[in-house]
Design goal:
elongated; 149 residues; mainly alpha
């Protein structure tokens, strides 16, 4: 398979970039965006009060999603190979899928988040995790035997 043509990893990268932009929008546009995306009234109010916590938490999420998008592009062969691409793709896939299925256990830890938030975000995580899984599986031979799995 043409490594630059892995539609699954390219789509995963686009999804990660879009999710990063949505999170960045929360930082820029504040409480209304936190509410719209179901992050909870407490996060929205802290953002409106100018507290650092929502910005820091959301900034970390933006950064992680951007790095994961770059690893998807790297795995697809669309950009230069990043270090430990195979391992990163395994971990990213696992984290997305685990986040997608573990929301019931996470809900009590974040009681302010709406049920809609949990269902939608978990579905999105399962979808993106599936893209990473299928794309990584297709690219596995092209990722090379010299890199640790």
């Amino acid at each position: 398979m043409n490594s630059a043509g892995n539609k699954y990893l390219l789509t995963a990268a686009i999804c990660c970039f879009a999710a990063a932009l949505a999170h960045l929008g929360c930082i820029v546009f504040g409480g209304d965006w936190y509410r719209f995306f179901g992050a909870g009234e407490q996060m929205a109010q802290m953002a409106e009060q100018g507290l650092w916590y929502p910005t820091m938490v959301t900034s970390v999420i933006v950064l992680v999603l951007m790095v994961w998008a770059l690893y998807a592009l790297s795995g697809a062969g669309a950009i230069k190979r990043l270090p430990l691409t195979k391992l990163a793709l395994i971990l990213i896939t696992g984290i997305f899928l685990l986040r997608g299925v573990s929301f019931v256990g996470l809900m009590p830890m974040f009681p302010e988040n709406s049920l809609t938030f949990w269902l939608v975000s978990s579905g999105i995580c399962l979808f993106i995790g599936g893209l990473f899984a299928v794309g990584s599986w297709q690219q596995w031979p092209a990722l090379g035997a010299n890199e640790p799995a």
